[in-house]
Amino acid sequence: MEQWEELKREERGERSALTGIPAALPALARAQAIQRRASRAGFAWENTEQAWDAFEEELRELREARTPEEQREELGDALFALAGLAGWLKVDAEEALRSTCRSFQSLFERLEAAVRESGRDLARMTFEEKLALWEELKRAP
After folding, report:
1. 72: alpha, beta or left, given left = phi > 0 and alpha = psi -120 to 50?
2. What φ, ψ does residue 123 adopt, rounded to 5°?
3. Are 71 and 90 within 8 A, CB to CB?
4. pTM for this entry
5. DSSP H helix total and E strand total for the chain
């Protein structure tokens, strides 16, 4: 692997290690690709704990952000740090999010059906009622 990376560095010459990462990749996949390349170039956290610390710091900064611009920037930083943490955990962040979206959609559709069957209106239910039904459906087979 080290020889391969050395050959790639020689091929690139003065170009960045990040050259060639498609801008059209989904954002999480691109973030992980950027971080993999930066890591191979020698710029990476030394261990999983540092990646966790970086993510937690970005979450703190996001909580403290006040303007929409700060919030957008800090959310991006937090997502980027989370993608980096995913690499340390050996998780494909893009696939993890896609899987969660599929699960959420399936459970939400079951929730909608249960609300319809009960003759209620989801928009008029209290938060506590919605959450209780959500948890009940999560436990159901």
Report:
1. alpha
2. -65, -25
3. no
4. 0.82
5. 6, 0
Q: How far is CA 1 from CA 41, 92, 121, in A?
A: 12, 20, 58
Helices (H), 27-67: 27-40, 48-64
Question: Any idea what DSSP says for residue 1?
Answer: -
User: What gap in Å lies between CA 75 and CA 81, rounded to an integer?
Assistant: 10
pLDDT per position as a tens digit, 29-47: 999 999 999 998 889 999 9
In the chain, domain spans: 95-141
Name the nearest CA neighbour of 33 among 46, 17, 21: 21
Q: What confidence category does residue 141 fall into, taking pLDDT thresholds of 50, 70 and 90?
A: confident
